């Protein structure tokens, strides 16, 4: 870079050239301004002389003794003569009070109107004329007024005016010439400027030139020198014009993209540089982004696909290039291959993994924390010590992992354990011992070394954690535990594994219990816990002693010496290292927690104002009542009640009175209803009543009438008698077959009808009940009685294959005296709603076993008996136990019984009771009812028989299901065949068939004789 003294003559010469160029322009402008100023001064002098003469002439012409009317006439005559001879353009006469008498002008014929037109007229007179004023006197020199006039001065003295005009136009010409020359100066000025600083930095010793270089040549020179400089540091340089066409590539850029400069010049940037992201999707180059958005693009990463197909990682950035006028003329992009850099990063990562592997194999746990004790790194040994994963440990504090002594020793810091230089034991004998806290709440003693570590990220602490459980046995463990027990806030109990007698109890436990230490020494936890079952407690101890569980948590109530009790949560641990082995129980008083939980539960399910259940609890109770009604023969009443005058009370007396009225209304509702009923508040003035166990719709209407009668008596609120009535909408299930939400909705419709009818009354929701629905309601009410009165009978539907009986389907039917026969499917649906489906399924099995006993006595071979069973029966052991008892009582071989399950039943097999597994192991088989392709996987469907229904009757379905049965080696029976055409399709598949088209169902009494005449071959 040249020194400042060497550049001073060049700068002076450049400035002198600028001044010489600007001097002619300034002189021309000064001459023009001087000529214009002189013309203005001459014009002013001529105007003053002419004004004086014009005023004298006007005064003489109007000096005759006129009155005002005569003065107007004389003025008109004078204006006409003076306009032609002296250039008078406008004349205005005013009286001595300033009022205008007459105005005459050369532009009066234009008929000016409006303020803007008057303003334009005045400007026109003032711009083209000279102005003057003359006084007008009457007889005896009496002052009459004033005359204001405008005239063309050139008509008075045309020679002088012509000379002044020529001088003025000469000034205008000089001024215009100077203004025209000024842009020429600004155009020549850049040619006198020196090269930009960035060009001088790129070319510190420029060659002498006869003329200043232009911008394009300077850009070319910069590209060459900058490109060579970037080549030396392995950076590629690409420049392009404003359209994105390449102007220059340095050598590194040519190597990266695979294009030579000659071939790439004038090509679009995206046709040479193919950039993609890590997913190989097209990515816009930084140069294109800069030109498109008009901004500089910071460093970003991507992948460059070269001309030969190579794909290499790059970093790129771009900057806009601007001309002297500030306009964008192109952009420059720098990029470099970062393959080597990424390889170095991978090497560093491998070294880091190797270092971490070495640290992980240390016997001590290693924790790296910040000065505040927050864990930033943990090795594998630390993970196993504390029971947390490495990700969980990061962010933990040392006080959480080692609460003792940091939480119960005020002022103690982790830095107190830092090793001093040259010390081996770091004086740790003077510091409290440390106890680690595992994830499962078990503890272990720790020996800790702390060392300060300074890194680029700042100061850190390295903690070497060693589990010293094995070292601190015997008395040291007892002493440490004693201090820990007394300092703990929780209640801590240590008792023997054999006798269960308490060995040690901490201060907190003694204070809460109130027993004397000698009394506590003769007690066990069973003596303290008043609601803890001994068998359950010993099962906990057995689990801990066997090692199947690390700890057990349970809740109970501890008994105090004064007879009171309080709830506690107990964590039970087992210590095998003690001789003899002991158990440790840590109990926490949870009285406040339970009270808070109870308050939260109450607020979540009750209205804060009235204490009644809210909508959440209402919906839960409604669903439970709805399900209970389905299983029984009673009805459920849903009543929606609205206070008619509550809004008027709020507006007239205020919301405080309205709130008290709501409380009183809630209390009156509760007092009117049965204990089994539920009343809930679901809106500002809306309540819902659930009345289960009703026998008819009339019962629900009777409940509604009782509520209406309860509101007849006025409410006494703050010494005021408030007469408030209510309207009620009534709905009854199962008269209305809707679900819980639908019942509420329909009751709301009935409420609106009651309010529209005037309020203070009830209205029932009228559900349309057709004859089939009425039949269903009657059957549902009577099905339980039919079971109790033994009105159900068993029928058998045989499954035949080429005339041979392969199996019998056992099904119950109900011959109703008034409503006719109720088939098996309808009967089972009624039983499910009444909650007696399980009893009917056991009844089927009982009668089928009795029938098989009769066949055996008749000397006939027993066919397979298929009975449909609900899936939920497999989750309990009662069904399996009773089935096994029936099979044993009637000597029915288990191999002859098949239990048919639907899809839900197949899913229930995954959670079957152990007794069900024993029943299946005895020989009882399973069948999949209503099978249809595609079938579930064999693992999820451990069955031996497939039963089809009406859903599988097409040729394609029959073919697919038959092939699947053969492939899995399963028996197949086509059922519910009522059509002979479908029957012929199934017979072509060589499977057993059953249905009305094969053989109608046989009553229990006729089935035995029918089987005597048929060959029987079980599946």
TrEMBL record:
Residues 776-1019 form the EAL domain. Residues 550-602 form the PAC domain. It holds the Pfam family PAS_9. The chain crosses the membrane at residues 20-39, 169-188. The keyword Metal-binding does not apply. It comes from the Bacteria. Residues 350-395 form the PAS domain. InterPro entries: Biofilm_reg_signaling, EAL_dom, EAL_sf, GGDEF_dom, Nucleotide_cyclase, PAC, PAS, PAS-assoc_C. Keywords: Membrane, Transmembrane, Transmembrane helix. Residues 634-767 form the GGDEF domain. SMART domains: EAL (SM00052), GGDEF (SM00267), PAC (SM00086), PAS (SM00091). GO terms for biological process: regulation of DNA-templated transcription. NCBIfam families: GGDEF, sensory_box. This is PAS domain S-box-containing protein/diguanylate cyclase (GGDEF) domain-containing protein. It comes from Solimonas aquatica.
């Amino acid at each position: 870079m040249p020194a400042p003294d060497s550049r001073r003559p060049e700068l002076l010469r450049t400035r002198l050239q600028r001044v010489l160029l600007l001097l002619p322009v300034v002189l021309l402008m000064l001459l023009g301004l001087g000529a214009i100023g002189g013309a203005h001064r001459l014009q002013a002098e001529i105007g003053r002389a002419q004004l004086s003469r014009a005023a004298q002439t006007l005064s003489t012409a109007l000096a005759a003794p006129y009155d005002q009317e005569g003065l107007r006439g004389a003025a008109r005559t004078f204006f006409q003569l003076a306009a032609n001879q002296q250039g008078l353009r406008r004349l205005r006469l005013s009286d001595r009070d300033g009022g205008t008498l007459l105005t005459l002008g050369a532009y009066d014929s234009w008929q000016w109107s409006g303020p803007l037109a008057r303003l334009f007229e005045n400007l026109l007179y003032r711009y083209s004329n000279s102005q003057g004023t003359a006084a007008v006197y009457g007889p005896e020199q009496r002052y009459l007024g004033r005359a204001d006039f405008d005239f063309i001065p050139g008509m008075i003295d045309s020679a002088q005016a012509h000379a002044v005009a020529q001088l003025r136009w000469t000034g205008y010409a000089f001024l215009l010439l100077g203004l025209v020359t000024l842009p020429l100066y600004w155009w020549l000025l850049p040619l006198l400027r020196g090269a930009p600083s960035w060009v001088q930095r790129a070319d510190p010793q420029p060659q002498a030139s006869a003329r200043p270089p232009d911008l394009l040549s300077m850009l070319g020179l910069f590209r060459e020198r900058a490109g060579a400089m970037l080549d030396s540091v392995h950076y590629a340089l690409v420049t392009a014009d404003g359209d994105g066409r390449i102007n220059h590539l340095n050598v590194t850029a040519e190597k990266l993209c695979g294009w030579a400069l000659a071939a790439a010049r004038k090509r679009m940037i995206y046709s040479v540089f193919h950039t993609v992201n890590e997913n190989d999707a097209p990515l816009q180059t930084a140069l294109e982004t800069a030109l498109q958005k008009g901004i500089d693009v910071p460093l970003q990463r991507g992948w460059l696909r070269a001309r030969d197909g190579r794909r290499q990682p790059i970093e790129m950035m771009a900057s806009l290039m601007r001309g002297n006028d500030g306009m964008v003329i192109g952009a420059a992009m720098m990029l470099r291959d970062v393959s080597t850099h990424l390889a170095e990063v991978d090497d560093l990562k491998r070294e880091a993994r190797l270092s971490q592997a070495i640290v992980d194999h240390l016997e001590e746990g290693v924790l790296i924390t910040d000065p505040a004790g927050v864990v930033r790194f943990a090795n594998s040994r630390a993970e196993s010590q504390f029971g947390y994963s490495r990700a969980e440990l990061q962010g933990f504090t040392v006080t959480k992992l080692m609460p003792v002594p940091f939480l119960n020793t005020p002022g103690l810091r982790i830095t107190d354990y830092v090793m001093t230089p040259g010390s081996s034991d770091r004086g740790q004998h003077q510091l409290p011992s440390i106890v680690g806290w595992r994830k499962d709440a078990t503890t272990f003693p720790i020996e800790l070394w702390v060392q300060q570590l300074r890194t680029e990220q700042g100061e850190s602490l390295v903690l070497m954690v060693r589990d010293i459980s094995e070292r601190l046995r015997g008395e040291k463990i007892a002493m440490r535990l004693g201090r820990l027990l007394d300092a703990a806030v929780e209640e801590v109990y240590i008792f023997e594994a054999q006798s269960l007698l308490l060995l040690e109890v901490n201060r907190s436990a003694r204070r809460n219990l109130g027993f004397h230490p000698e009394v506590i020494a003769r007690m066990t936890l069973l003596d303290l816990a008043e609601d803890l079952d001994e068998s359950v407690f010993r099962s906990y101890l057995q689990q801990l002693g066997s090692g199947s569980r690390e700890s057990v948590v349970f809740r109970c109530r501890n008994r105090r010496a004064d007879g009171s009790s309080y709830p506690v949560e107990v964590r039970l641990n087992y210590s095998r290292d003690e001789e003899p082995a002991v158990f440790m129980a840590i109990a926490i008083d949870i009285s406040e927690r339970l009270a808070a939980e109870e308050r939260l539960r109450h607020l979540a399910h009750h209205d804060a104002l009235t204490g009644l259940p809210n909508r959440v609890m209402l919906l839960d109770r409604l669903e439970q009542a709805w399900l209970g009604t389905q299983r029984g023969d009673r009805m459920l009443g849903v009543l929606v009640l609205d206070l008619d005058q509550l809004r008027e009370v709020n507006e007239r007396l205020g919301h405080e009175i309205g709130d008290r009225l709501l409380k009183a209304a809630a209390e009156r509702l509760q007092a009117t209803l049965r204990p089994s009923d539920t009343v809930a508040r679901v809106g500002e003035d809306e309540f819902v009543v659930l009345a289960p166990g009703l026998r008819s719709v009339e019962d629900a209407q009777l409940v509604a009438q009782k509520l209406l009668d309860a509101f007849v008596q006025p409410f006494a609120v703050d010494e005021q008698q408030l007469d408030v009535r209510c309207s009620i909408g009534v709905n009854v299930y199962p008269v209305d077959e809707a679900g819980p939400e639908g019942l509420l909705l329909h009751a709301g419709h009935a409420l609106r009808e009651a309010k529209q009818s005037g309020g203070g009354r009830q209205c029932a929701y009228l559900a349309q009940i057709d004859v089939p629905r009425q039949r269903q309601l009657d059957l549902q009410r009577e099905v339980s009685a039919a079971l109790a009165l033994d009105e159900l009978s068993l029928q058998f539907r045989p499954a035949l294959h080429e005339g041979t009986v392969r199996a019998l389907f056992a099904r119950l039917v109900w011959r109703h005296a008034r409503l006719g026969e109720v088939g098996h499917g309808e009967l089972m649906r009624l039983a499910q709603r009444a909650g007696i489906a399980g009893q009917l399924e056991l009844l089927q099995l009982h009668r089928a076993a009795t029938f098989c006993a009769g066949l055996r006595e008749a000397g006939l071979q027993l066919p397979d008996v298929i009975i449909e069973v609900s899936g939920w029966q497999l989750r309990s052991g009662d069904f399996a136990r009773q089935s096994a008892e029936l099979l044993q009582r009637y000597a029915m071989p288990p191999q002859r019984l098949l239990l048919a399950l639907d899809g839900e039943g197949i899913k229930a097999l995954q959670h079957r009771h152990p007794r069900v597994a024993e029943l299946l192991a005895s020989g009882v088989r399973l069948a999949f009812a209503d099978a249809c392709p595609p079938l579930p996987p064999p693992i999820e469907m451990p069955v031996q028989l497939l039963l089809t229904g009406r859903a599988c009757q097409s040729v394609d379905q029959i073919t697919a299901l038959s092939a699947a049965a053969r492939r899995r080696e399963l028996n197949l029976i086509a059922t519910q065949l009522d059509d002979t055409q479908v029957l012929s399709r199934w017979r072509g598949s060589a499977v057993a068939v059953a249905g009305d088209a094969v053989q109608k169902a046989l009553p229990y009494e006729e089935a035995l004789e029918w089987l005597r005449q048929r060959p029987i071959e079980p599946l």
